[in-house]
Design a protein that fits this description.
By secondary structure, this protein is an alpha/beta fold. Helix content is 33%, strand content 22%.
């Protein structure tokens, strides 16, 4: 008899977003209502860059990116989701051993074939600990559960890693229009509002130019994942579009110590 499925339970439900399913749906819908809608001629992107703070802080910025997926909601079947390991020191890239990630909205299957496809890439290991309490990937799933019909996910926790090694991992699972890559990162942390605007504008310009080497570790908490995506985008001559750029000082925080948030489309 087959063993029970291994499920990674929600770690930040009730903190970064509501634990009650109806309240969570309302929070996601409110984020979309406050988002910046795409132009009528905007193409469905191959990849997105989105923030990962609590929904009251960065939900509308993330939603501005996820709106770009709506026209392809029935054809996108896989999300390659990469972000930082905030709580567990990590060198390389960790994929979970779990069969699915749970949110209050239900289960998201982990793509076993994609997991197997990246295991021969440099620095990739199976490790559940970096994923167990990590919010940067988890907070994206409810948005995707609302935007898309049915999909699976390859969660990648990215530690200290060369951009070319992350790009090589993405190469293995890049796929076609059925696959979208989502890189999760916030921008500057705990500067004054005015200083954060200046720092984040510079970082946003580097992202839009796909200049991975211009993004420092302190410019974005998901810098290693972000640099890898930008390296993959540059190798494919893909354009990067800034969708939104704000901070907690623009949403639900004060202006003394803010965190920056950006949303970008790659395609």
């Amino acid at each position: 008899m087959a063993g029970a499925a291994a499920i990674r339970p929600p770690a930040v439900a009730g903190a970064f977003y509501p634990a009650d399913p109806e309240a969570l749906l309302e929070a996601v819908r409110s984020s979309f209502s406050a988002a910046r809608p795409p132009r009528g001629d905007a193409a469905v992107p191959k990849a997105l860059v989105v923030p990962h703070a609590g929904y009251v802080y960065s939900g509308a910025v993330a939603a501005s990116a996820y709106l770009r997926l709506v026209p392809a909601r029935s054809s996108i079947r896989r999300i390659v989701l990469l972000g930082p390991s905030h709580r567990v020191p990590l060198h390389g890239v960790a994929v979970p051993g779990d069969d699915a990630f749970a949110t209050p909205l239900g289960l998201v299957p982990v793509a076993d074939d994609a997991r197997n496809a990246v295991l021969d890439r440099a620095g990739v290991t199976v490790a559940d600990l970096p994923h167990a309490a990590e919010h940067s990937l988890e907070v994206q799933l409810p948005f995707l559960q609302v935007v898309l019909d049915a999909f699976d996910v390859l969660p990648l926790a990215v530690g200290r890693t060369r951009p070319e090694d992350v790009a090589a991992v993405l190469d293995a699972v890049w796929g076609g229009p059925e696959t979208v890559v989502v890189a999760s990162t916030d921008l500057s942390h705990y500067h004054s509002y005015a200083e954060a605007r200046e720092l984040d504008a510079r970082t946003a310009a580097a992202i839009a130019a796909a200049e991975a080497d211009a993004i420092g570790d302190r410019d974005a908490c998901g810098a290693h994942a972000l640099r890898g995506l930008l390296a993959a985008a540059r190798a494919r001559n893909l354009a990067v579009e800034q969708i939104d750029l704000r901070s907690s000082g623009d949403t639900a925080g004060d202006h003394e110590r803010v965190v920056g948030y950006g949303a970008f489309a790659v395609g």
